[in-house]
Amino acid sequence: MTTKGKLYLVPAPLDFGCDLQAPLQDALPLGTLQAAAGITHWICENAKSARAYLKRIDAVAPLAAPLQAQDIQELPREVHKKGDHVGQFDARPLLAAALAGHDIGLLSEAGMPAVADPGSSVARAAHDLGITVVPLIGPVSLLLALAASGLNGQNFAFVGYLPQDGGERQARIRELEALALKTGQTQLFIETPYRNAALLQALVQTLQHNTRLAVARGLTLATAQVRSETVKAWRAAKPQATTDERLPAVFAIGR
């Protein structure tokens, strides 16, 4: 009887799409990089960026197989657009190699797969198939931002992306603020980097002046910035001038 392989959740550095990259060893422990180097079967968002990441790993911990010999499968495009956390995508076919005895690595573009990124369907399918799921240690932008924000880290929620429509976004901001002020629960959300400035401006214009707003940009990079102040202070500082559209950001609001 063939012993099943394992599904490794392999975190990636947070510098995806940034002009400068942090040294890989500064963002991920050697044990994680060595474990990733030993895997030859992968599930990812994008094969091209997965190969680029594996090339970076190879410079630190030699890969068990050359890049061209790595077996890389992409998650379907609809999973990227709609997410796979609601249970509608069947990822079991992607895990055939694990049933045949091969370990599989699950990758997202940045950070921990299945956390603010696709991948939960793959982990869920692995459990259903009796495949051991092993999360490796690495950066998670949401938790780094929360820890640095000074906001409530005992009660928090990640709510994904806010609506792009101006009116709907304003209503959602007010809804999240009311929840944060009533319950003390920190509300965390993200945006595509080139929309960061527009979202920050909407937050500063919409939130009450005593609400605390935190923005963490470029985490783990040398240019990382974390700012956490009342909205009144943000308004006085013209926040649109301080937002780098190239850097990924995490936004948080609370008491």
From TrEMBL:
GO molecular-function terms, A-Z: methyltransferase activity
CDD domains on file: RsmI_like
UniProt key word Transit peptide: no
InterPro entries per record: 4pyrrol_Methylase_sf (IPR035996), 4pyrrole_Mease_sub1 (IPR014777), 4pyrrole_Mease_sub2 (IPR014776), rRNA_ssu_MeTfrase_I (IPR008189)
Entries under PANTHER family matching the protein: RIBOSOMAL RNA SMALL SUBUNIT METHYLTRANSFERASE I, SAM-DEPENDENT METHYLTRANSFERASE
UniProt keyword terms in alphabetical order: Methyltransferase, Transferase
Example GO biological process: methylation
Keyword Lipoprotein assigned: no
Enzyme class: transferase
SUPFAM superfamilies for this protein: Tetrapyrrole methylase (SSF53790)
Designated name of the protein: 16S rRNA (Cytidine1402-2'-O)-methyltransferase
Enzyme Commission code(s) on record: 2.1.1.198
Domain of life according to the entry: Bacteria
